[in-house]
UniProtKB/TrEMBL annotation, chain A:
UniProt organism field: Pedobacter paludis
Protein's recorded name: Uncharacterized protein
Top-level taxon: Bacteria
UniProtKB/TrEMBL annotation, chain B:
Protein name (database record): Abasic site processing protein
GO MF, one example: single-stranded DNA binding
SUPFAM superfamilies the UniProt entry points to: BB1717-like
Presence of the UniProt keyword Cytoplasm in the record: no
EC number(s) per entry: 3.4.-.-
Length: 83, 274
């Protein structure tokens, strides 16, 4: 069966609402974060480091801090829905 | 060991992330609320991986162009045949009884088209000075979605159009349409057709299955029951601005519920319990 793609959702980041949309590209779950203003949208995914340690990263490189901050919120959002 | 964004990753992970970069860069269909078919926009479609164990989401141009054609030829082709949609019942034999232009794609190039909602217009005759109905109509656009679902899948067929003028290869696709259910007969009252919307199991079969022609046709004719759909009228600005605003039209008669309640469909392949 197909794994359902997360429906688009909104998150509050530093008192601003951003729109998050999930896509699947290849076998990767990719999240596009739209700031609804002039700031460039951010695309992030979960990468796998040594010893299978997972971490959030921006696609392309260069916005790692943002990826970690927003990735954590996305993970919390998805986890909260499953409870 | 390689580094990506300052983090250690394996070589294979690094290659995968770099491939992902390329795919993301090409994804300019993201964040578009309304796709108007007649602009031949880029949309999200799912195609099976070579081993048919998974699928990937890629972008393709809505408006099927088969094989090799120059730019002018492709424009003329689309104008003449309007290849945004294909009829489920004409995948292998055309309405005139000839072999259908879709038959090879139906066997080899099936895809799924991702959508969060479709827009169809209800045509209501304008009234003349004496109150008589005129041939001219007013169009009332409706947004139709799947109750309780943010998105759904429609069967599609794709073709890699090789532009003989530029050498450029563009993946193009068409969406399957079928006979309208009772709700869509009222909404899309000029054509009495609707897009085919597939349950997950049939979407998977359409994409991955090794299917007979009869089974392909059967899936492509799937009619979603009216009870599973939700609709509302929207403002006409969706067409030019690509923005959806709910809008009530006081003069528009309400959708008749009676025919929906007694609906019997010839091609309802949706699970009964939903």
């Amino acid at each position: 069966m197909m794994r359902p793609i997360e429906p688009p959702f909104d998150l509050f980041i530093e008192s601003k609402m951003v729109r998050v949309v999930e896509y699947v590209i290849g076998a990767k779950r990719v999240f596009r974060v739209d700031y609804n203003d002039s700031k460039k949208p951010l695309t992030i995914t979960v990468a796998i480091g040594p010893n299978n340690k997972k971490f959030w990263t921006s696609i392309p490189e260069g916005r790692q801090a943002e990826a970690v901050q927003i990735g954590r919120l996305i993970a919390d959002h998805i986890r909260d829905k499953q409870i | 060991m390689c580094y990506y964004n300052g983090q250690k990753v394996t070589r294979s992970e690094f290659i995968q992330l770099k491939q992902l970069e390329k795919a993301v860069r090409n994804y300019d269909f993201l964040n578009v609320e309304v796709h108007n078919g007649f602009n031949y926009p880029l949309c999200a479609i799912a195609v099976a991986t070579d081993d048919k164990r998974d699928f990937e989401l890629i972008q393709a141009q809505w408006g099927y162009v088969p094989g090799k054609m120059g730019t002018d030829e492709a424009i003329a082709f689309r104008r003449k045949l309007t290849t945004l949609n294909f009829k489920g019942e004409n995948l292998f034999v055309s309405e005139s009884g000839k072999p259908s232009m879709w038959r090879n794609a139906a066997r080899e190039n099936r895809c799924l088209v991702f959508s969060t909602g479709i827009i169809e217009s209800q045509h209501i005759p304008k009234l003349g000075k004496k109150g008589q109905e005129l041939k001219a109509t007013t169009k009332y656009p409706h947004l139709v979605g799947l109750k309780g679902h943010e998105y759904f899948w429609m069967p599609g067929l794709y073709s890699d159009w090789v532009n003989q003028d530029t050498g450029e290869v563009t993946r193009t696709f068409a969406i399957g349409i079928t006979q309208a259910n009772e709700l869509m007969k009222q909404v899309h009252n000029s054509k009495l057709r609707m897009p085919c919307i597939l349950p997950d199991n049939l979407a998977w079969e359409w994409l991955m299955g090794d299917l007979t022609d009869d089974r392909i046709t059967e899936i492509a004719m799937t009619q979603i029951p009216s009870r599973m759909l939700e609709e509302c009228t929207i403002g006409a600005e969706y067409r030019l601005d690509g923005i959806i605003n709910k809008q009530q039209y006081d003069e528009l008669p309400r959708i008749k519920q009676e025919s929906i309640d007694s609906e019997i469909l010839d091609f309802d392949h949706w699970p009964k319990e939903i």
